[in-house]
Amino acid sequence: MIDRRLIQNFNWGLLSLTVLLSCAGICTLYSAVTAGPPSSESSLYIKQLVSYGIGVFLMIGCFLFNYKLLERWSFAIYLVCILLLVYVLFFGKVAGGSRRWINLGFFSFQPSELAKIIAVIYLAAYYSKRVNTNGLTLLELLHPFMILAVPFILIVNQPDLGTGLLILTISGTLTVFAKIEKRALWYLGGAGALFPPILWFFLKEYQKQRILTFLNPERDPLGAGYHIIQSKIAIGSGMIYGKGFLKGTQNALAFLPEQQTDFIFSVLSEEWGLIGSASILILFVLLIIMGLNIANNCREPFGVLLATGITAIFFWEVLINAGMVMGLLPVVGVPLPFISYGGSSIICKMMGIGLLLNVSMRRFIIVK
Amino acid sequence: MDTFFKTPDMDWYKKRLVLAVYIAVAAFLCLFLRLYYLQVIQGHEYKRLSENNCIRLQRITPSRGLVFDRYGDLMVDNRPSFDLYITLKDTPDAAFTVKRLAQCVKAPEQDLMARIADAKKTPSYKPILLIQDMDRDTVARIEVHQYELPGVTISVQPVREYLYPKSAAHILGYLGEINVDELNSGNYEGSLNGDYIGKFGVEKSYEKKLRGEFGGRQVEVNAFGQVIRVIQTVEAKPGENIYLTLDGNLQRHTEALFEDKTGSAVALDPNTGEILAMVSIPSFDPNLFVGGISHENWRILNSDPDRPLRNKAIQAEYPPASTYKIITSMAGLEEGVVDKNSDIFCVGRYYFGNREYRDWKKEGHGHVNILTALSKSCDVYFYQLGIKLGVDRLARYAKACGFGEVTGVELEHESRGLIPTSSWKEKYRGARWQAGETLSIAIGQGYNLATPIQVAVMMAGIANGGVKYKPLILKKVESHEGELTFNASAIKTGTFPMSRKTLDIVSQGLFQVVNIPGGTAYSSRIEGIHMSGKTGTAQVVGRVTKNGEDRKIEARHLKSHGWFTAFAPSEDPKIAVAVIVEHGESGSGAAAPIAREMIKKYLSEREGQ
């Protein structure tokens, strides 16, 4: 089973990049939770280390087997994911007003994180048999549309609209990559342009207000708007060189909301300045280029699509999270991969890396 | 095979992947530019803003809605409370500042330091509450020394003022600090630890209307914590003003009528179900709860055996006693068990099984028919009627008239009372119903339990010809600007199961209770107004001892409760009341005079309008 070529072709570059990002993440989290008065959150970085430990095992698990198995078992994997999401909806742990977690005693797991990867696996398996130079027809797109509607509805009902929309965005990206037929594109574009105004017409006034605030946080100076201002002050005040590790004042005085999860990039930028924050972003750009390069080196469609889809997960999460804390994008709860606190996110990102490594190391073995 | 179908080769994928790299790099370029803008171009400005952490959020508390009586007489007002805060971040030397402060407010330094120590978990830029509701002299002294007290601020918060202390306290209720469960319940959006919310009475029931919506402002403060610029403000939305159905004068008059007695009284408008008065004695002063009740006061209120915090009108359950004979009469007439003329001969006792059941009048009432049985409250007549009806038939009528169920009044903790049936006994007592028990049930004793408001709802139904209404406490709601946002209308919850004929007979009996010599409430008749009513005496312990001797009761807490329920004027009822005087010994002696004065007061007031 262990082929010498597998070891020869192991992608050490991607692994090193992951290790670098993880270390930066742990350091930033340490600063985010230990600055300021000691509280129950102070030990979160230890829990994060444990998540990384579990993540490393699952990452290894994700590249030991031949990834082509996933193509064959994609529907079964999808069903397991749906079952987990249904379970959460009825028996999940409630926190902060939504039911997102499965309580495993020592650890709470968030299946919607896993759903991102599983959606990619399923779509990659489906498209790999249908990709053609003309693009996918409307009829061919109907199937993935219905397949995605189920987890989307389940996640939105938790309620977690942010994650639901993110899964649609990732899936949409993979679909566009697989190419949509011109005529289908026109129809979809037309429907996409018509749908929002019609929906708008049916919304109640308070719902409209909520959407407007979502799109423009400044409309809510006491909530999201205030968070964004504080986040911008934190980032901006880091200037070029930063205030130094553990020296961020916005962070220490608890001015930042959710400084260990959604707003962790602000902590990093405040303490490490432009040099630190730009470096992290460059690491992410390298990760994305490496992911796409793995797709490029793969010789069969499923591997190409799988690698591209997983790369899309990283791309969107980084873009949305960083864009949000800098005040460029609406405030949605999307974690920054490898940096934000959250076991499920860390574990699933490590699994994603494991799958990329898997595709990468089997590029010469599997020839269609 | 479709000729148009072309499986793409690896070059096709490569082209698309290269495009993807370009798109990704372009997107990240935007992020880099934004970083450059924030950290380099705007960096100095943000650095300055971060130095004092000077952008802060202040909350604007909405003013709570006022409470009026039905005629617009103010019952609950807001007054300013001057609260003292300290913000540690703005105080260079907290110990020194507190020392100076202690002199100004004439409070022990240790107390103030203890407050600060308690709040050590709050971030240093957040103000810590030191003293609540300071008097004006203290406020003046602090203002004079303001510049020696960095980080010390006075904030004015509106607090509740109950204008008639102790009056209608159980209806108005009080506020208290929000607890963890309430915070997590999601029902109190925008509330934070330390906020006050309605905990009891109308303050709780209509919390959402009264509270309003929080506002806030983003402000920039200087190094001393003083606001130098308001960046943005979202105004608070004041709570709505509510008008209760209560008649404040009648309420206070009734409370006074109880003097040193304890008990409860409810007055309803029989045609709408509006609650005109709801009295529970002893009462408490809700002003004690403003700014948090002291442990001592809370202990006193809770340990009082007369339970002043309990709204007896809806929470206390008593045997309805002879007032329940109205139900027994209705059931007997409707079921055809008796008619207007059926009569019996009462000798003051009745034998059933091998037991003797006494009438309240030892020497007996002689010949009685249903009218005299009601007016003289003859127990023997109703013993026999009860036997013929049986417990389950009787319970059906009682339930249709609102007993054994909550009336639905919009106040918390309403009791259901209890109307026993044979299946109830089997289920909860694990024993079969004994026919002898029906005798006690027929005269409203035994397992029967009712709240004063249930008795009032029944009497209102008799007065209005058989309609059961939900008792209303809220008459209307107006927005802060005076716009009407809610106007109550009568809510019918059922119809009494009785024909016109039955109603006429029962009404006639109730009329005779008050207006014919020999009626149990004849001494409480009103000159010029016809009142109909029914007395009742709820036994706390049995009338006879185990040896069959009459029991002599000396201890107050073993004396019977006195009931009286009535409506007036008999011809065109405008008010229905139920009064219970705890341990008042008899309905006619203790409760009827109070009911009479309530009715006189209300009807004379109406005439004046």
| Backbone structural class of chain A | mainly alpha
Mean pLDDT of chain B: 89
Question: Overall 3D geometry of chain B?
Answer: elongated
Which sequence of SSEs, written as H and E, runs from N to C of chain A?
A: HHHHHEEEHHHHHHHHHH
Number of helices of chain A: 15
Helical run tally of chain B? 21
Quaternary structure annotation = heterodimer
Mean model confidence by pLDDT of chain A: 87
Number of strands of chain A: 3
For the record, the count of structural domains of chain A works out to: 1
Global Rg of chain B? 34 Å
Instruction: Please name the CATH architecture of the largest domain in chain B.
Output: 3-Layer(aba) Sandwich
Strand content of chain A: under 5%
Radius of gyration of chain A: 21 Å
Account of the 3D structure:
The complex is a heterodimer of chains A (368) and B (609). Chain A is mainly alpha-helical and 368 residues long. Chain A has one domain (4-361). Chain A is built from 15 helices and three strands. Chain A starts with a helix and ends in a 7-residue tail after the last helix. Classes of the chains: A mainly alpha (368), B alpha+beta (609).
